[in-house]
Amino acid sequence: MAEKMASGGCIICGSDLIYLNESESLQCSICKETFLSNARCVQGHFICDHCHELDGFDLIQQICLNSSSTNPVELANLIMSFPEIKMHGPEHHFLVPAVLITTYYNKTEKPGLISEKLNKARERAKNIHGGFCGFYGTCGAGVGTGIFMSLILNSTPLSKEEWKLSNLMTSKSLLEIANYGGPRCCKRDTFLSLETSVDFVEEHLNIRLDKSTVKCKFFERNKECKNQECKYYPG
Ligand SMILES: [Zn+2]
Ligand SMILES: [Zn+2]
């Protein structure tokens, strides 16, 4: 089968893309549906037309709904590789609770709850507009961890222990974020929030989500990157 190399790498794995002369039956890496296509990466990854046209919020939801990951940082890194997720932007306010909800319910073997919780997280995250960090003193990625905690504990304004843990979760994330100083970086603040959540969930709920060492692959797109001052900077 003749193949032609395409410019740009695979979003999923970074390998080269190839165009095939004859279509193959391929499973979309996002929605897991099968389609005939003549484009894929050398490792076999393929993204269908529908998934290519999703906006940032829809993309986050679609990838999470089809993920079996138990590693929030890894899942966030995958989602942030897509161009629909800007270097900075309020989609991170949904991204943080979305990957936490997904990995938490995959880990606790209740994946049936993911869809409903993602819908609620999305509704709540919509209220956290861009620039919250600098204008309201409350980074939206940090608030996203509180949304996550509130949703998995079914907290309301009248709850006791659940209310406490939800607010404590946000405050721990914000403390880590604040101590770094500005300017804001939605990637750094997302990584800090996720790492803080993994430790918090283990300490308070005795559930161990998977961890991985973060090497930021986004710094070249961030003109305000703190470079060596950031612990995720790979240089
Ligand atoms: Zn690939
Ligand atoms: Zn698809």
Oligomer classification: single chain
Distance between the termini: 41 Å
Shape: globular
Small molecules (ligands, ions, cofactors) in the structure: zinc ion
Helix/strand/pairing category: mainly alpha
Instruction: Give the ordered list of helices and strands.
Output: EEEHHHHHHHHH
Mean pLDDT score, rounded? 94
Roughly how much helix do the residues carry, as a percent range? 40-55%
Widest sheet: strand ordering: 1-2-3
Poorly predicted sequence stretches spanning 5 or more consecutive residues: none
Largest sheet: 3 strands, antiparallel
Q: How large is the count of helical segments?
A: 9
**What is Rg?**
19 Å
Number of individual domains: 2
Task: Please summarize what this structure is.
This protein is mainly alpha-helical. Helices cover 47% and strands 11% of the residues.
Structural commentary:
With 235 residues, this protein is mainly α. The chain has 2 domains: 3-51, no CATH class; 54-229, no CATH class. The protein has helices spanning 49-52, 56-65, 72-80, 91-107, 114-125, 132-136, 140-153, 161-180, 186-205; strands spanning 3-9, 16-27, 34-41. A 3-stranded antiparallel sheet has the order 1-2-3, with no helix packed on it. The longest helix has 20 residues, at 161-180. One zinc ion binds at residues 28, 30-31, 33, 48, 50-51.
